[in-house]
Amino acid sequence: MELTDGNVINILSELAPYIEADGGWLEFVEIDYMAEGAFVKVRLGGACTSCAMSSVTLKQGIERRLMEEFDELQGVIQVL
Question: Could you state, in order of their start, the residue ranges of all structural domains in the chain?
Fold first, then answer.
């Protein structure tokens, strides 16, 4: 699948209900093309702001799912 804003938003939309079920929310910010490669930037809010598990959600949930779909993706970065 091509790494585009729309395709990333579609995947994140699949994940959002799981995050919302715990009182959080997920927002796509941008695709950032750095020297190391492409990174998706997201914002986690609501209950995710103070949750100790948000880093696990970011890496083992969101990042893993996106990297399954986009070969050129190097990772996901949480922005505030």
Answer: 5-78
In which residue are the tokens 């804003």 written? 5
Contacts of 38 by beta carbon, 8 Å cutoff, 6+ apart: 3, 31, 32, 70, 72, 73, 74
Class of domain 5-78: alpha beta
Task: Please give the model's pTM, rounded to 2 decimal places.
Answer: 0.92
pLDDT of residue 30: 98
Could you tell me whether strands 73-78 and 24-34 are parallel, antiparallel, or unpaired per DSSP bridges? Answer: unpaired
Pairing of β 73-78 and β 37-46: parallel
Residue written as token pair 């938003």 = 9
